Amino acid sequence: MRSRTERALMAVAAVTAALVMSGCSAEDSAPRVAGDDGSGAGSRQDDNAIRRAWVTCMHGQGQNGVQQDKDGNIFMPATGMSDGGSVAAYEAAVKVCDERNPGIRQVKDKNLQKFVEQARAWVACGRKHGYPDLPDPDPKSAVLIIPTQSFDAAKWDAIQPACSKLPLPGYRIGE
Known about the structure:
Blueprint: H1 4-20, H2 47-60, E1 67-68, E2 74-75, H3 87-100, H4 103-128, E3 144-146, H5 153-163, E4 171-173
Parallel strand pairs: 3-4
Antiparallel strand pairs: 1-2
Helix pairs in contact: 2-3, 4-5
């Protein structure tokens, strides 16, 4: 059985993927992808096609816990790595799939401000419900970085029910 901290660390990659790949409305303009020279002659893909290709790639890399919901959001349940997978294997698969699907970076960049605001709302909820010393999320990545010495697993677990209606930001423990 894995410890709570190990499960939290393994969930980091999963949660980050969910934030990175969050769905967008159909009215959003599609980002440019590799092969589009800017002349207008190249084909453009919509965000959902890019996310779908990334998920397919992750499955090809053995990361079958990565899923896409009906709204286009990508997520990986924390239990997705409990079948013997590792954070390192997940991160290696992300690197491969990011390289094969260069548009995924543009999808993330286009939605960064939304992710930062969602992360700030989640942190505010956590502070209000018993974890007052949660750090602010990084404004350049929307990731919550919690130093090991200040991480309190009991407080973390206690705020989850109260804040579960908000999107959990990507987070890392141990920096």
